[in-house]
Amino acid sequence: MQYENVGHIVLIRCNKIISSDKRKTDDKIGRLSNNIRKNGIIQPLTVRPLDYGMYEIISGERRFTASKLAGLSSVPCIIIDTDEKTSAALNFIENSFRKNYNLFDEADAIKSLILDFKYDIDEISDMLSCDISEIIDKLKILHFSRENRVKAEISNLSFRQCKALLKLENTEFFDKTLDEIISLHLNDFQTEEYIGKILKNKRNTLIFKDIRIFTNTVSNAIEKMKNAGINVISDKSENDEKIEYRIVIMKNNKIAVKSR
User: Fold this and answer.
1) Collapsing DSSP states into helix, strand and coil, what is residue 215?
2) How far apart are CA 237 and CA 147, in angstroms?
């Protein structure tokens, strides 16, 4: 479907704009609102058209919230005609460069890109220009319980500190160590050193809980090979103990082979 004004800056009424951001606003939103009230919006929002004359925000969630607080009925927007999957990626990329982007929010967003929008881990690593191992480490942060996540957020624990804490996951030391790191105001190095002493005589292996992230990546890789014209036979079996894949790549690609 073709939309008018794609690629142009237009004024759109706030009641025609849908925000996809589920995060609560931070305490700086009032300052941004006052600035918009005095100077207007310097950088337009980016939106994508939906049905019935509605639009969804791709980038500019904070500007949109602040504009409504400032009493604006319309906001300047650049319209981009794109699908929901691409929109989710663009929104994630913009947020990832925000200095105050919460590490747990980022991990939630990465998980959503994989499970809801079927992105591969390697595709997300390309978005952020980082190693796949770093993406996996970010996802591991979601192993924090809701209570411990709140503690870490309020105390502004860094990614390095949270990553170090996960070495104690599934042990009796985790909660106590988290509380001590917070109460002692330890920095990154001190946290790693403190946890290293605890682990000196104890080995603990981190088990990745949400295995769907990896099974989705395997399934997507198989699908990409098929789309590229490579004949692939794939079987998947699952029980209470394991998920097993059998993948056969045919050397002779002249005969199409259907996956079972």
Assistant:
1) helix
2) 36
CA-CA distance, 8 to 1, in Å (whole number)?
A: 17
Distances (CA, A) of 188 to 41, 147, 182, 196, 203: 38, 21, 12, 12, 21
DSSP-assigned letter for residue 23: S
Enter the tokens of residue 74.
Answer: 């319309």
User: Going residue by residue through the chain (260 aa), what tens digit of pLDDT does each one get?
Assistant: 456 677 788 999 999 999 866 555 566 788 889 999 999 998 999 999 998 889 999 989 889 999 999 999 999 999 998 888 888 888 888 877 776 678 999 999 999 999 988 999 999 999 888 899 999 999 999 999 999 999 999 999 999 999 999 999 888 889 999 999 999 999 999 999 999 988 886 654 444 556 777 777 788 888 888 888 888 888 888 887 788 888 888 877 654 444 43
Which residues, other chains included, contact 159 with Cβ-Cβ below 8 Å and sequence gap of 6+?
103, 137, 138, 141
Q: Which of 214, 210, 180, 212 is nearest to 195 (CA)?
A: 180
In angstroms, the CA 62 to CA 59 distance is 9
| This prediction's pTM | 0.64
Rounded CA separation 169/259 (Å): 39
**CB–CB of 169/141 below 8 Å?**
no
Query: Can you tell me the distance from the alpha carbon of 138 to that of 164, in angstroms, rounded to the nearest whole number?
Result: 12
Q: Is 99 helix (H, G, I), strand (E, B) or coil?
A: coil
Give the list of residues 6+ apart from residue 259 with CB closer than 8 angstroms, or none. Answer: 222, 226, 232, 233, 234
| Contacts with 182 (C-beta within 8 Å, 6 or more apart), sequence order | 151, 155, 157
